[in-house]
Each structure stands twice: as C-alpha cells, then as structure tokens.
DNA sequence: CGTGCCAGGTGCCTT
DNA sequence: AAGGCACTTGGCACG
C-alpha cells in the first residue's frame, strides 16, 4: 500500500504516524480543526477552523481552506517540519532560515492523517510563454515590421536584458519588448528604460526606436508610449484562441525541424503592402487616438 | 464523521464517491497515478505519475507533486468540476470560461479518495504589509524627512494612485513611493511616472520631489533614481521578529536619508530626525480587532 | 548567493 | 468587467 491513512487518531498516534511519514519522505495531508500562526517576513494569525495541512518532503507546508487557489498560510520549500505534542495536542511547526520564518499549526482535533509515497515525472512543458512568442517572431520578423532584422535576443544592457534587438530597413536600432498579455504602464516604462540604455551605450546619433509587441495595451500605457515616442505592434501570442481585430496571430506549428517555407502562406487578407502607413499592424502611438 | 475516505476504489466507486462529495460541497483529495493535461492561456501536458489532486467546492483544482509550493497544474476558483469514467478509468475535468481553460486529470489507478467537510474562520489578518508601513509612516512622518507633512494617501493621478503625497518644509510637493521589500528598477520607474504626473497636473513651478522608501535598493535602481533626481530613504518594514505574542510590534527603524543625486535638497545631518529625541516608539498599525 | 524578470501569476480594490 | 498594483508573490536563469 502506498497510501496509509488514520482516522481520528489520538494526538500521540498522529505524532507517531507523522514521524514515520517524515522518515519515509512521504507526502502528508492532515485534516482537522486547528489554529495557524505565521511569523516571519510578515505575521498572521488564524483562528480555529477545519483546514487541510499539506506537508511535502521537500519542506513545503501548505494550509488550505475550502476557498481560493492560494493556501491561506504556507511555508516555502527548504523549510523543516517538526511535529510534537504539547498540552496533549498535536503541533506541526515548519521553520526556515534567511529569512527566519515559522509556521505553527496547532490541532485541536485530528480528523484524518494520510501519508502517500509520491513519485512520477515532474517534467512539465508549458507552451505559450514569452520565449515561444520570441521564437515565433524570430521565424517571422516581418510581423513586427516589414524588413525588420533581428540581431540579438536577451541583449544585456544597463537597464537589463532586452527581449529582442534588431535594425529596421533604415538601419536604425530597434528595441523590441515582448509581452504575451495585455500590458499596462510598467511595460511601457520598461521599454523606455531599454531604449534609453541603448542610446547611452551605443551613443549613436541614429535615434533608437522602441517597439512594444503585445496583444493589446491599456489606455495609460498607450499614452505613456506616445509621450516617449515609442511604438506598439499588436500581436496575439502563439496558440491562442480567438482573433482580436487588427492583430496578427502567430502559429508555432513550425516546431518540426523541417522548415516548411510557408512564407507565402499569409492568412490575412490585407495586403502585405506598401510601406506607406499601414495601420493594421503597426501603429504609431502618437497617431492612434482611440 | 466529517471525513470519508475510500482506499483503492474501483474507478466507478471513485466516481460515485466523487459525485456525492460534489453534492455535499466537500473538499476532496484524490491520490493516484494519473496524467494531467491543461489547455487554455497556455498549454501543458504531464505524463503518468503519482500525484495529489485537490478539488475545492469553490471550483479550485490543484495538482500537487512532492515538490514545490505551487501546484504543477491548477484551475482557478469558479471553474466547474466534472467526473466521468472513460474507457474504464476515472477522469476529472475542470473547466472554466473567459478565458476558456480546461484541466484534465486521467487516473490510471485511484489509490485514495477523501472527502472532507471544511468550515471555519477564514479571517486572516496579516501585518507587515505595505499598508502597515504607510500607517507607521503617517504616525512618524519625520522618518521620511524631518518636517515632512503628509497630505494624502493613495492620491489618484493619471499614472495611478500615489502611495503617499505631502510637502516638505519648503512647501515643495513630495511624492513618496513605498515598498516593503528591496526594490529594483521598476519601482524607480513607477516613482518617476508619479512625479511626472504630479508635475503635469499641478503645473506648479515648484519642482516635485520623489522619494522612494524601501528597505534597500538594487544598484540599477539606485542609478535610475539618480538619473531622474529622485531620492531614497532606507526604512525597514515593520516586522514582528522576536515576539510571538498577540500584539504585533512595528519598530520602524530610522535610517539615514540617502540622497542619490548631488543636487540633494537636504544633505547630511538633520534628516536623521533626532530632533524629536524619542526612543524608538512602537507603532501599532492594527487595532486589536479580535 | 544576489539581481532581474516572467508567470497560465493570484488576489484586492477602484473605476 | 477592466485597470492598476501589492504579494510572506513563486520560480527560473544568469553573473
């Protein structure tokens, strides 16, 4: 049996089971009436109630109620779990250092205690990240702008690494900041910092352009972009469902190593057209008043 | 009994128990060998392995392994849980809309299924937040600067709400941005946006000062502050280390004013605020509400 | 280990 | 509902 459970144990029985489970490196769940106190980076206290305590062999401790996704209290991995019986009651204490933090769970009653041997693949691959978006744009740089030439990704600057750096058809340096979701003012500020850093470092007389690539942008961010002469290109992240008007959709089905050249495969009906103002994809922030 | 558990049920038995537990609004844990697939804002797939599935009556679904604090897969509150037996195996599906997201857990074997009736106080009071820091500073504005006069908190601007707004002894407007942790460049940008907003809105000829209040600042952020003529004041956030008692003591340490640029308005000495000659006072940011 | 930044961030609150 | 932001953010990658 890979899962052992005791129902309504005495506090001392629970303690024995707990220590055995710690020994085996099991994943442990304890359900019962308890109080919770946390003290460390902040401090909190939680009155008596039925909750689920989840203890992981890596030192994680999670206190869950019947609501919300986040635990009401927790302790990060690397903490040390200790169990003891004080005043006839089970106390589970999870401690870590730097910063010093302590989580105490005092059980009034233990209704159930389970110990499970957990194993299995933990390799989870998530697609749809910003890195995926970047790769898609490297495959099709024209999505950003016709003739845009990528030169570097994660180019380091004084202000931090630039998502995508390149040149436009006029040879002007272009800083591209990628966001996979609708962006607020902070992203505009971030782009502005990068542009300023490149202007300082390269010291070129050629003005540095800054382009924010995201599905959409909030009003404040749009104004902030305009203030700094930055641009915005609407691009839906890869593998996203639905299509918002005026934005380009990237499909990353090119994961096959064979580079199927589908450059002619342009789904949008709008002309790939002349380089005079084509507002469908690239819009200058100071002209698009909405 | 408030917790019912079945060990190694058949998939069909597990389904019955599950549906009963859904009906009762129980907190449910399922432990077994399973695969997990998620598709929505992103997409992921997880191969066969022993994991713990936690289903909450509010629609939350969490898949936990033996490591890490965050679940390896999840579904936020408001989702709908569905259970079914397909090909003789239990499948738990959690779905939500806007955005459309689906989480599928296919069980090869169900080793344990528990249903628990959870109730209890959920009122958690956390001290040490940014709001606490702000209250402490309202009590002792001299910590920011001798003679600083707070005028408003959360003052709205075009760039968003300002944490703390006031005037210095010369009557110049001061924008204060509070952070409870060591800050990076984004906080400096945020402060800069607020200062610019106030300068636009008030249109005063009096230059607007910006002060970042935080425990410490990274190098890049420091340089960024200097660039924009912004200032930094080191203040430790209220912490409750050393006392596990009921009332949280917030001892706000007084640190030296650290004017970043040389055009410092108030260099050296008197900003240490020793003019009020008080021993470090304990500031209660939170009335004993329970 | 600190620094910086993305995240399927989550949660809270205001407009 | 959308926007803006704090968070015991968590987690990762890099110097």
Automatic annotation (TrEMBL), chains A, B:
Residues 238-258 have a biased composition (Polar residues). GO terms for molecular function: DNA binding; single-stranded DNA endodeoxyribonuclease activity. It is an enzyme of class 3 (hydrolase). Residues 235-290 are annotated as: Disordered. Keywords: Cytoplasm, DNA-binding, Endonuclease, Hydrolase, Nuclease. InterPro entries: Endonuclease_NucS, NucS_C, NucS_N, NucS_N_sf, tRNA_endonuc-like_dom_sf. GO terms for cellular component: cytoplasm. Its EC number is 3.1.-.-. Residues 129-246 form the Endonuclease NucS C-terminal domain. Residues 27-118 form the Endonuclease NucS N-terminal PH-like domain. Signal peptide: none annotated. It is found in: Cytoplasm. Its main location: cytoplasm. Cleaves both 3' and 5' ssDNA extremities of branched DNA structures. Belongs to the NucS endonuclease family. This is Endonuclease NucS. It comes from Halonotius pteroides. The gene is nucS.
